[in-house]
Design brief:
It is built from nine helices and 14 strands. It is of the alpha/beta class. The protein has one domain (about 30-315): Ribokinase (UDP-N-acetylmuramoyl-L-alanine:D-glutamate ligase), CATH 3.40.1190. Strands 4-1-9-10-11-12-13-14 form an eight-stranded mixed beta sheet, with helices on both faces. Strand 12 (about 235-240) and strand 13 (about 245-250) form a beta hairpin. Helix 1 (about 65-75) crosses helix 6 (about 270-285), helix 4 (about 210-215) crosses helix 5 and helix 8 packs across helix 9 (about 335-340). The longest helix has 15 residues, at about 290-300.
C-alpha cells in the first residue's frame, strides 16, 4: 500500500507571523476557531475535594487547552494548522500565544490579543480515569466568529456544533473545505435536537458516546451511530476504553476498532487528539478502519501523559511506539503480534527519520506540559 507521505513541518516553512496583521499563508491544511484556555491539570488525586478538606496531587501540568488541544494535536501530526481565537494581554495570554505560535508553529494570523481581558482558565482534576473541571472565563471583547470574516483557504475545517460559527463554515464548505464537527457537554442537560441541524454542512461528525446518545435520545452507542448516519456522510462515536465505532456512508464502511490497552493518567483532550488523527487519515484517503485505528493510537498515547494539548503525540512518539511493538512482536509476544498486524499500515505513513533524532524534521515528539519551561521537542 503506497500512501503519500505526510509532509512534516520544519521551522523554515512554519515560521509564525509576528501578529494578527501578518500576511496569511496561501493555504492551510486545517482551520479551526474557538476558545483557548490555560489548563492547569492535577493528577494522582485520591478523590475529589470536599468542603473543608485539602488534597495533595502527585502530579501537575499546565498547557494551552480548549480548542488548542485540537490545534496542537493537528500541528504535531504535520498538518499546517490555523487557529482563530481571542487571547488576553495578561501573563497567561503571553504563555498561550508563545507556546502555540513559537513552539507548536500554529498559524495565529486569524487570532487577536485584547487589552484588559482576562485569559480563560480551567483547573482539571484527574481521578480514577476520569476528570472534573473548574473554569473561570469572561466573554471575549468581540464574538469569536467575527475573527474569521476573511476566510483563509484550507483543506479541512473543524466546527463546534452549537457555537457561533458565523458564516465562515458555510463559506468554507462551499469552497470545498471538508468540515469535521464536534460537540461539547450540555450543562443544561437539555440536549436540544436543533443542534444536529448543523450536521448538513459537515463531512464528518465525531462525538463521544455520551454526547451521541444524549442528542439522539438513544440508549446505546451503535443506535446513536445509526441515527446520526442519516444526517452526515461520516460518523465516528468514540467510546473511551471500548474504542470507537464508525460508519462511512460515502464508501459504505462500518467499523469497530478497540482502544489500546494503556494506563490512562489524564484523559483531558483525548477526543481532540482522536479527531486530529482522523483528519490526517482522511486527508490521506485512508480506509475507515485505519483512520479510526490511528485516532485510537494517538489518543491512547496522549492519555498516558499530563496535559491535553502538549501530551498529544508527534510522529516521533508514534515511530517509537511502533518500533517497540515490532521489537516485542519479534520475540513472539502474541499481544504485540496482534498490535503489529493491526497497525502494519504505519510502515507506509511514518515520515522517514521520525525515530532517528528528537530534533530532526520528522521527529516531532510530545512536549512537557508545564508553564515552567518549554518543550524540548
Amino acid at each position: 500500500m503506497a500512501l503519500p507521505e505526510i509532509q512534516t513541518q520544519t521551522e523554515a516553512d512554519t515560521e509564525s507571523p509576528a501578529g494578527p496583521d501578518a500576511a496569511r499563508p496561501a493555504a492551510l491544511d486545517v482551520i479551526m476557531q474557538g476558545t483557548v484556555f490555560l489548563d492547569i491539570v492535577f493528577t494522582g488525586l485520591p478523590g475529589l475535594p470536599t468542603a473543608g478538606t485539602e488534597l495533595f496531587a502527585e502530579g501537575m501540568g499546565s498547557s494551552p487547552g480548549g480548542v488548542a488541544n485540537l490545534a496542537v494535536a493537528a500541528a504535531r501530526l504535520g498538518l499546517h494548522t490555523g487557529l482563530s481565537a481571542a487571547f488576553g494581554d495578561d501573563s497567561y495570554g503571553d504563555f498561550l500565544w508563545t507556546t502555540l505560535a513559537d513552539q507548536e508553529h500554529i498559524d495565529l494570523s486569524a487570532s487577536r490579543r485584547f487589552d484588559h481581558w482576562h485569559s480563560p482558565v480551567t483547573v482539571s482534576m484527574a481521578v480514577n480515569r476520569d476528570r472534573a473541571m473548574v473554569t473561570h472565563e469572561h466573554p471575549p471583547p468581540v464574538p469569536i466568529d467575527h475573527l474569521l470574516n476573511d476566510l483563509p483557504a484550507a483543506r479541512a475545517g473543524v466546527v463546534h456544533l452549537g457555537a457561533a460559527n458565523g458564516e465562515w463554515a458555510q463559506k468554507a464548505s462551499a469552497a470545498g473545505t471538508l468540515l469535521f464537527g464536534d460537540v461539547g457537554w450540555d450543562a443544561t442537560l437539555e440536549w436540544p435536537a436543533e443542534v444536529l441541524d448543523q450536521l448538513g454542512q459537515l463531512h464528518a461528525f465525531l462525538p463521544n458516546s455520551a454526547e451521541a446518545m444524549a442528542y439522539t435520545r438513544t440508549e446505546d452507542p451503535r443506535a446513536a451511530l445509526m441515527a446520526l448516519a442519516d444526517l452526515v456522510p461520516v460518523v465516528i462515536v468514540t467510546c473511551g476504553g471500548q474504542g470507537s465505532i464508525g460508519l462511512d456512508g460515502v464508501n459504505g464502511e462500518e467499523e469497530w476498532v478497540p482502544a489500546l490497552p494503556v494506563n490512562a493518567v489524564d484523559a483531558t483532550g483525548a477526543g481532540d487528539v482522536f479527531s486530529a488523527a482522523f483528519i490526517v487519515g482522511t486527508l490521506q484517503n485512508w480506509p475507515l478502519r485505519q483512520r479510526m485505528a490511528f485516532g485510537n493510537l494517538c489518543a491512547g498515547l496522549a492519555v498516558q501523559q499530563v496535559g491535553g494539548s502538549l501530551a498529544a503525540p508527534g510522529w516521533g512518539d508514534i515511530a517509537d511506539w511502533f518500533g517497540t511493538v515490532t521489537e516485542r512482536a519479534g520475540t513472539g509476544s502474541r499481544p504485540a503480534l496482534a498490535l503489529r498486524h493491526s497497525y502494519e499500515f504505519l510502515e507506509d505513513v511514518i515520515p522517514a527519520g521520525a525515530a532517528e533524532s528528537a530534533h530532526g524534521p520528522g521527529a516531532v515528539r510530545r512536549a512537557s506540559a508545564t508553564i515552567a519551561r518549554f518543550s524540548d521537542a
